[in-house]
Amino acid sequence: MYHKTKEKVHGLLHPEIVGNKNWDKVINVFIIVLIILNVIAVMMETVPGFHDEPHEKKFFRYFDLVSVIIFTVEYVLRVWSSNHELKYRHSIKGRLKYMVSPGALIDLIAILPFYLHAIIGLDLRILRILRLMRFFRLFRLTAYMKSTHVIINVFKTRKNELLLSLILVIFLIILSSSAIYFAEHDHPVNQYKFTSIPATIWWSVVTLTTTGYGDMYPMTTFGKSMAGVIMLTGVAFFALPAGIITAGFLEEFRKNKKHPNTKCPHCGKIIDLDDSHDH
Amino acid sequence: MYHKTKEKVHGLLHPEIVGNKNWDKVINVFIIVLIILNVIAVMMETVPGFHDEPHEKKFFRYFDLVSVIIFTVEYVLRVWSSNHELKYRHSIKGRLKYMVSPGALIDLIAILPFYLHAIIGLDLRILRILRLMRFFRLFRLTAYMKSTHVIINVFKTRKNELLLSLILVIFLIILSSSAIYFAEHDHPVNQYKFTSIPATIWWSVVTLTTTGYGDMYPMTTFGKSMAGVIMLTGVAFFALPAGIITAGFLEEFRKNKKHPNTKCPHCGKIIDLDDSHDH
Amino acid sequence: MYHKTKEKVHGLLHPEIVGNKNWDKVINVFIIVLIILNVIAVMMETVPGFHDEPHEKKFFRYFDLVSVIIFTVEYVLRVWSSNHELKYRHSIKGRLKYMVSPGALIDLIAILPFYLHAIIGLDLRILRILRLMRFFRLFRLTAYMKSTHVIINVFKTRKNELLLSLILVIFLIILSSSAIYFAEHDHPVNQYKFTSIPATIWWSVVTLTTTGYGDMYPMTTFGKSMAGVIMLTGVAFFALPAGIITAGFLEEFRKNKKHPNTKCPHCGKIIDLDDSHDH
Amino acid sequence: MYHKTKEKVHGLLHPEIVGNKNWDKVINVFIIVLIILNVIAVMMETVPGFHDEPHEKKFFRYFDLVSVIIFTVEYVLRVWSSNHELKYRHSIKGRLKYMVSPGALIDLIAILPFYLHAIIGLDLRILRILRLMRFFRLFRLTAYMKSTHVIINVFKTRKNELLLSLILVIFLIILSSSAIYFAEHDHPVNQYKFTSIPATIWWSVVTLTTTGYGDMYPMTTFGKSMAGVIMLTGVAFFALPAGIITAGFLEEFRKNKKHPNTKCPHCGKIIDLDDSHDH
């Protein structure tokens, strides 16, 4: 009965595997809503004047406390029922292995700030915003699983080309920072802005991403000429990752037309084909 | 003869189905021109000094009145002749069903501001700009029907991936707002701008879309470092929807080469294939 | 001999048809260089202090005069030899037909400002910059002909979808201008900037293209919220034409692999396949 | 034994050909780390206050000296062992031919500033930043070779179309600069900014790349109208290179699925297929 309970709890916490749609969905929707409210609460607590009244401060404290209790109970249940899966079969090693998996770490980070503050007094409560990361659980629901895998696979398959374009971008940033620093650091006005190559890197990133705040810009003719070339080149370089990502998506869309989602004939649970293939 | 008249009126108002090119086109061009003039009138009424003279004010009032009368007559005729189509056959239920369809609602919103103002005195006349929405009628003409369907289908087919990238974008906005708020809210100058996380969200959106007005930007070294990473990441994240949309278009262009537009063999009217298939 | 001379002159002026590489290339390179120098001269004449000395002013005057003489002689020769081609066979009607073709009109606009100024005294000499348009002649050389056709065909084939996305963009501009005008025109500071819907259109275009000068931006919370949504939507809408153009290029690249450039077996001249097909 | 030593040294310096993974990798990682430290040192030397203390100045001097010695030794070894390859077999001509190849020139530029300063006293030490170019050596390692070739081939295959879009972009810049100069140079405020067409070119590039610093922008209604059209057109024109690059990537990804990397059956070294084909 212990195992049946564990299997049941595991099923409740992982509806995407069991394929159940009633009670599980309710629990997950409840947890999702709680996460969203938590994130909004953290954002609102930073607004000056929003919770100055003592009863308002109390409300936020209690809301946080209740949320942490619910999340902690959920976390404990997850760790306990984790070794129902084959990957984590061993009762101690398996559970530790589960605790260092990305999903479990995110769940832990979500409740840790409260305990660190309550027990040690370390105020990193802004890390509560990381509860937002628990949203990724949504992505495991069947409806979104295919789409998430599409996006993740695009990055996996093309990671070499993407890394290369990132390195090219870093090159461009360093070279253009040096060039514009060299041109502007003697200018009567700009010498106080373009004070060093690292300082000019801020200008490079702001300009190459075409954000262009206007807090720093070249004022010498030589600097403007070089900046013009840098801006035009930057547009091409930044088209590289976009092109790689887009071409990658097309490949994925083609692949997916041939391997639709299937159910295991033995136990009826949904098999994620990408897990069972070599990659 | 009642039915023949209804059929004729319906044909006049829906030339894309009958495939007629003379009288119907005239009526539609006239209505389109009237819509454009209306929209320009609403825009011009906001320009100070443009219609201060009493005779100018009168002109605008009369123009608006005449337009509303024409649109009202057209609306009534559309509702009356709507049950010629199979979808809306029932004389009351069918017509009510037509009245809540998107096209009919837009037509109603177009004339409502005038009546609300005239009868109840509620001045939402800026909503007259929504007459612009009636422009979508243009898109139903045969020439543009295929193109409209291409664009709509791209969004329909890829809606899961697009929704996912939207959620990822919202994540990025919330996480970067929190990070930069944390970095800048103690800075002597920036504390008056980066006053809370919601306030910083404005900076995030302006920066991640690379608009970069320059009203707010990080001034601490830590803030600038994080902002640099955020900007470079943002460019990649914003390449996701672009890539999905582009790859989607390619699929649509391929599909369309195989299924050209067809006419119904029985009544000769043009069949919209996407309506008759499962989707 | 008249016809032989005409054929020879025509061949000199249209090397892309004859496929000749020696004398023709020299003439064309000379004309191209002259155009570039002309354009640079027009740009430099606007720089204050650049040509204040009388001998400098004389130099520019003479350079312009010589250029106009050369271009006029070239224009006359082109019109005279134009009826060597089948399209323009008739001696008067054919030549008039040639004179209204885009290429000939550009050549005329290039020399007209000088004559208008010399004869009538109308100073539209800045139109001399349009001599730059004569650069399109370069594109007719064999090496670039395929590439030019690729780019032109992308726009030709997809013109319906591109027109639609343009209309959608105009919609977005009008709707967002109205919304932000409504939100900002009562703000103590912004009422002097967002003075009317047409004035707000400037903000819309600057923001939707993500240029973001920073001369105008929303300051009310309601305005900022709507602007945030507008900016995120704008990024998607502006991805439409990019997607259509990119997908269009892929189709063109595929097509071109099957129809390489061919020479006419009878006269040895290069046939432009797109001209001989229906389009 | 001389040849064996040369072959061994050549193998050490070119691990991507021999396919060795132990000692060679160590040497290359060491050189790469030294390059990165050098680049960081050059950037940090520009930060005011960073190395004012005499012992700090000494540290940077010695670090630079040691680096130059190591790079010089490496350079001499490379030139000496270069004629092991068939391309550079001749002992003098072959080595000179190697010395003018891009890789060797970059290596020379990396050490030249030091010698120019030490021997002649010419201070171009900022050129030390060009040591960063030596990073391209990383790209020759097998893992990244395929990806580098993918990116290079995209630009090689599509160079005509890319050159054309560059020319179109230059056109757009010159035409828009002339138009906006014409509109703004009489404006009371803007006459001091839009002083000439070359001055307006700065505005054009900043605006067409959508960077938009906000240091210059049209203030006349006519100027704003034209600028709006220019901005919308610019977005389309800048989509051209992005589209060409993306479509190019797709072609490359397809090609690569058919021609995997192969080893020479005779000597076991890795053959770069693109070098052995006509292009």
Topology summary:
The structure is a homotetramer of 279-residue chains.
Chain A: H1 2-13, H2 15-18, H3 23-45, H4 54-81, H5 93-99, H6 102-120, H7 142-157, H8 159-184, H9 197-208, H10 221-256, E1 262-263, E2 270-271, H11 273-276
Antiparallel strand pairs in A: 1-2
Structure description:
- Four copies of one chain form a homotetramer.
- Chain A is mainly α.
- Chain A is built from eleven helices and two strands; from the N terminus they run ααααααααααββα.
- The first copy, chain A, has a two-stranded antiparallel ribbon.
- In chain A, helix 3 crosses helix 4.
- The first copy, chain A, is extended.
- Chains in contact: A-B, A-C, A-D, B-C, B-D, C-D.
- The interface between A and B is large, with 43 and 42 residues.
Structural class of chain A: mainly alpha
Proportion of β residues of chain A?
under 5%
Oligomer: homotetramer
Number of domains of chain A: 2
The low-confidence parts of chain A are 272-279
Q: Note the main sheet of chain A.
A: 2 strands, antiparallel
Strand order of the largest sheet of chain A: 1-2
CATH architectural label of the largest domain in chain A: Up-down Bundle
CATH topology of the largest domain in chain A: Four Helix Bundle (Hemerythrin (Met), subunit A)
Overall mean pLDDT of chain A stands at: 75
Shape of chain A: extended
